[in-house]
């Protein structure tokens, strides 16, 4: 699976896209267009330094 990764624009806002990759929910950053799924070893954080509730729920439901 290849996810899109772009340089950070310091406008991070991570939200579910409504799509799935390899049966995992796909999240996108509205700031730079990067993508994330719960199997990744890193956790996306919004520009305010907080993890969105949707990302947190996905991490708990699909632990890596």
Describe this entry's structure for a reader:
- With 64 residues, the chain is of the alpha+beta class.
- It has one helix and three strands.
- It has one helix at 53-61, and strands at 14-21, 24-29, 35-36.
Strand content: 25-35%
Number of helices: 1
- Biggest sheet descriptor: 3 strands, antiparallel
Relative helix content? 10-25%
Enumerate the strands of the largest sheet in spatial order, edge to edge or round the barrel. 1-2-3
Give the structure's gist in a few sentences.
With 64 residues, the protein is of the alpha+beta class.
Write the layout of secondary structure elements.
Layout: E1 14-21, E2 24-29, E3 35-36, H1 53-61
Antiparallel strand pairs: 1-2, 2-3
Label this structure with key terms:
64 residues, 1 helix
